[in-house]
Specification:
alpha/beta, Rossmann fold, four-stranded antiparallel beta sheet, 10 strands, globular
Length: 262
C-alpha cells in the first residue's frame, strides 16, 4: 500500500444556498487507488460536494472523513488537494515557483516571494512532482507560456507538492482539446494506480468517465442517483441531464431564468 493511501468518505452531506438545496443527504466513498467520476447536470451538486470536502464551502450537515479522521465543518483538510477548471497558476512566475507553492501550507508566507526563498528540499520535492507529471524540463519557464494541458498538469504537480492523499478535480479537462484531455485523464489514472491516491473528478464527458474511472456516480438534485462501474448506459446518463434540459426549455419558453449551482 502506498504511503499516500487514504479513503475519502462523505456521509449525509447537506448544503443549501438560501432556499436552494444543492446537496440533499449525499453519501459516497472514494478508496485509495480508485478513480471515481461524478456526472450530472449543472445544479446537481457535483462541484459543491468537492468544494465542501476541500473546505471552500461549509456544509450544513453531514461528515467528511479522510483516512479515518473526520474533518471539522468548513475546515481545509491537509490530505486533500483540488485541481480546478480555472487552473489558478501565476502566469508570470516559473513553473517551479507555482509547484513549490503547494508546500506553503507547511511553510510561512514569507517564503513565497521567490523560488529562492523555498528550502532546497522543497525545490527538490517540487522537481520530483514535475517529473511525475512529465514536465521537469519546463521547470524554469513561465507558467503562462505553457499550453492549457501542460498548465493543468502543473496544477496537478502543485497538488502533489501538497502531499495530498486525496486528489479532487473539478472539470479538469473541460477547457482542453481532446489530446490534452487524454493526457490529463491518463495522469489522474496513473496517480491512482501507481501512487495510491484516491481521485474524484467532476466530468461532463461520459466517454472519458467510462474509460478512466473505476466507478461513476450520477447526481441529480443533490442526491446520488447511481453508483456504478464504468459500464453506465447512455440512457442512464441521459436521464441525469433530462430534467435540466426540460427546465431550460421551459424557462426559454417563458423568458425566465434562474441561477444554477454546480
Amino acid at each position: 500500500m502506498s504511503e499516500h493511501a487514504a479513503t475519502l468518505s462523505i456521509e449525509g452531506l447537506r448544503k443549501a444556498f438560501g432556499e436552494k438545496t444543492v446537496l440533499d443527504g449525499l453519501s459516497f466513498q472514494v478508496a485509495s487507488g480508485e478513480v471515481v467520476s461524478l456526472l450530472g447536470a449543472n445544479g446537481s451538486g457535483k462541484s459543491t460536494s468537492l468544494r465542501c470536502v476541500v473546505g471552500l464551502e461549509r456544509p450544513d450537515a453531514g461528515t467528511i472523513t479522510v483516512g479515518g479522521v473526520t474533518a471539522k465543518p468548513g475546515e481545509a483538510v491537509p490530505e486533500v488537494a483540488m485541481v480546478f477548471q480555472k487552473i489558478h497558476l501565476v502566469p508570470r512566475r516559473s513553473v517551479l515557483d507555482n509547484v513549490c507553492a503547494g508546500a506553503l501550507g507547511r511553510l510561512g508566507l514569507s517564503r513565497s516571494w521567490s523560488v529562492l526563498a523555498f528550502p532546497r528540499e522543497v525545490q527538490a520535492e517540487a522537481m520530483a512532482c514535475l517529473d511525475r507529471v512529465g514536465l521537469a524540463d519546463r521547470a524554469r519557464e513561465k507558467a503562462g507560456r505553457l499550453s492549457g494541458g501542460q498548465q493543468q498538469r502543473v496544477a496537478v504537480a502543485r497538488a502533489l507538492c501538497q502531499r495530498a492523499k486525496v486528489l479532487l478535480a473539478d472539470e479538469p479537462v473541460s477547457a482542453l482539446d481532446p489530446a490534452a484531455s487524454e493526457q490529463v485523464m491518463n495522469l489522474l489514472r496513473s496517480l491512482a494506480d501507481d501512487d495510491g491516491l484516491a481521485v474524484a473528478a467532476v466530468l461532463h464527458q461520459p466517454d472519458l468517465a467510462r474509460r478512466f474511472s473505476d466507478r461513476i456516480l450520477g447526481l441529480a438534485g443533490g442526491r446520488l442517483v447511481f453508483d456504478s462501474s464504468a459500464e453506465v448506459t447512455d440512457e442512464a446518463v441521459a436521464d441525469l441531464y433530462r430534467p435540466a434540459l426540460e427546465a431550460a426549455a421551459s424557462m426559454a419558453s417563458t423568458g425566465t431564468a434562474t441561477k444554477e449551482f454546480a
